[in-house]
What we know:
The complex is a heterodimer.
Chain A: H1 2-31, H2 46-69, H3 80-102, E1 122-125, E2 130-132, H4 133-138, E3 149-154
Antiparallel strand pairs in A: 1-2
Helix pairs in contact in A: 1-2, 1-3, 2-3
Chain B: H1 4-14, E1 21-22, H2 27-31, E2 35-36, E3 46-47, E4 50-55, E5 60-64, H3 75-83
Antiparallel strand pairs in B: 2-3, 4-5
Amino acid sequence: MKASSSATGVDYQLSRTTLWVGVLITVLGVASNWLYFVNLPGQRILPWINLVLPAVGLLVLFLALWRAYARRGRFGGKLLAPVFVLICTPLVAMSVWGFFHARNVPPSLGAPLVGQKAPYFVLVSSAGESVSLSQMLSERMGNSAPPKAVLLIFYRGYW
Amino acid sequence: MDSPNVSRKLCKGQGYTFTFLSDPKAEVIRRYDLLHVGGGPGDVDISRPAEFLVDSSGIVRWVNFTEDVRVLARADEILAAAKALK
């Protein structure tokens, strides 16, 4: 009698722990999407973090759900596990969708590579003037020499 | 691809002092093969993000083609590439 009730006690704790570990991993994983707004180095690994971490968290939550219901006896999480699974599934889905959407960029095989000449262009600036690439490369700012280089930034405008 | 007027409002609002060019017909975006057809909200054509460091003779010396639009080139990376041009 004593042995089985302590075993039940351990199982109860284990399923509660699984539940909260699952919630923690999922929340951290989904929250990691905000790190794109923080000026941190090593951002190249971030897409993998907010793909894998939420997915792992959700798996752990499903494990907690299974633990709560699959076996007889009083196992913790019968109410909380389904609630968290319902809340977290769309959040994880969004994080995973974000991964694939953000990587859906064209191959741009025709873009100039290092060592190639940058294609010439003339465009209108926000001040209403015509500006060409060669103009920018030879432009003198005040009394200083022309720039050693020009940085062209093509931006997307939004995510 | 915004018009010069739209860009001017953006620069003023954000306090940008660098040269801001408009490519409303996406001509230059296409010339650099950066067009992302239907990549914007409402399926509009948009530029994919890319940065090119071009030296005084017009040769590309450094590029950044991000494979994930959320991961941006950092200022210190670009400055390091620019310093390396000496």
